[in-house]
């Protein structure tokens, strides 16, 4: 899974206003069509972990967990989509297993809604 890097890409996904929420995370998604030929070959992931989650060490831990879990469950996503995982403040204290279940459930819902 590639990364969303530019601010414009993040804003494009967030402006679409398609999201699925969990207890500790919110998944914003944008399913690309054939008009976006240069970007349509990959799934791309962006992370949004604000200072409300905690200090830098805590935020980096949350981001590391999100990257690992997204890599584990990316096969559930449609082939041409952009995803932004946004952490709620409760994500800092959530267990790895809880986050795993939430991301699996959210990615399955994204796949179902994209069809």
UniProtKB/TrEMBL annotation:
Record-linked InterPro entries: Ribosomal_Su5_D2-typ_SF, Ribsml_uS5_D2-typ_fold_subgr, RNase_P
Top-rank taxon: Bacteria
GO cellular component term, pick one: ribonuclease P complex
MF term (GO), any: ribonuclease P activity
Coiled coil: none
Keywords: Endonuclease, Hydrolase, Nuclease, RNA-binding, tRNA processing
GO biological process, one term: tRNA 5'-leader removal
Catalytic function, reaction form: Endonucleolytic cleavage of RNA, removing 5'-extranucleotides from tRNA precursor
EC code(s) of this entry: 3.1.26.5
Gene3D superfamilies: 3.30.230.10
Catalytic class of the enzyme: hydrolase
NCBIfam families according to UniProt: rnpA
Record-stated family: Belongs to the RnpA family.
Functional note: RNaseP catalyzes the removal of the 5'-leader sequence from pre-tRNA to produce the mature 5'-terminus. It can also cleave other RNA substrates such as 4.5S RNA. The protein component plays an auxiliary but essential role in vivo by binding to the 5'-leader sequence and broadening the substrate specificity of the ribozyme.
Quaternary state and interactors: Consists of a catalytic RNA component (M1 or rnpB) and a protein subunit.
Protein name stated in the entry: Ribonuclease P protein component
Natural source organism: Bifidobacterium scaligerum
Gene: rnpA
């Amino acid at each position: 899974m590639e990364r969303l890097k530019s601010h414009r890409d993040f804003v494009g996904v967030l402006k679409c206003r398609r999201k699925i929420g969990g207890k500790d995370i919110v998944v914003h998604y944008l399913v690309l069509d054939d008009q976006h030929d240069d970007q349509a070959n990959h799934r791309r992931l962006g992370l949004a972990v604000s200072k409300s989650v905690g200090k830098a060490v805590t935020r980096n831990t949350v981001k590391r967990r999100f990257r690992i879990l997204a890599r584990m469950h990316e096969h559930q996503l449609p082939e041409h989509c952009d995803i932004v995982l946004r952490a709620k403040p409760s994500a800092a204290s959530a267990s790895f297993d809880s986050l795993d279940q939430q991301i699996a459930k959210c990615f399955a819902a994204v796949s179902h809604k994209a069809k």
